[in-house]
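step: validate -> pass
step: tokenize input -> pass
step: predict -> running
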Amino acid sequence: MIKIICKNVILGFLAVLIVILVSGTIQTRAANPNLDGDSHPTRLKLNECIADVKEVTAWDEKETLDAARKICDKRQSHAKQKAQFLVSLKKLREQYQNYTNHGFDEHLPTAIEDSWTIVKSCIDFKEGFTYPHNVAILSVPEDVRSGCYSLGISLVESALFNEKQ
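step: predict -> pass
step: emit ->
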């Protein structure tokens, strides 16, 4: 009787351990992680950019307006690159989702996850070497993300088989 109880306890423990190990390997990240950090790609209106510049500077009206226009341009560039990256991922998904040759369809979720990881790693790398001051506090995060999304676009589009390279 004690042997049976011990055996059941051990089997139960092993079953729980297996469930924990398996669930730990399943990807749980959201499809589109938020990599915005200190950037503000949704604050695109000139009055929002002016307000943000005024928060970090004490410039006269002309300098503030000039800087705000530049910040809005950088934010628009960031938003455009991010949108293009998402379009590239959509194209990749559409092209390979039923492409069973060599298991490409099975590799697709990993490839998309890796694409996001590369963009995030690019951002982390670049931000590790930037310590902006003044109005650059607003522009550098936008430039970093714009460049890293551009890298991601190039990477993903290089895997598309019906695109001109």
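step: describe -> The chain has five helices and no strands.
step: cleanup -> pass
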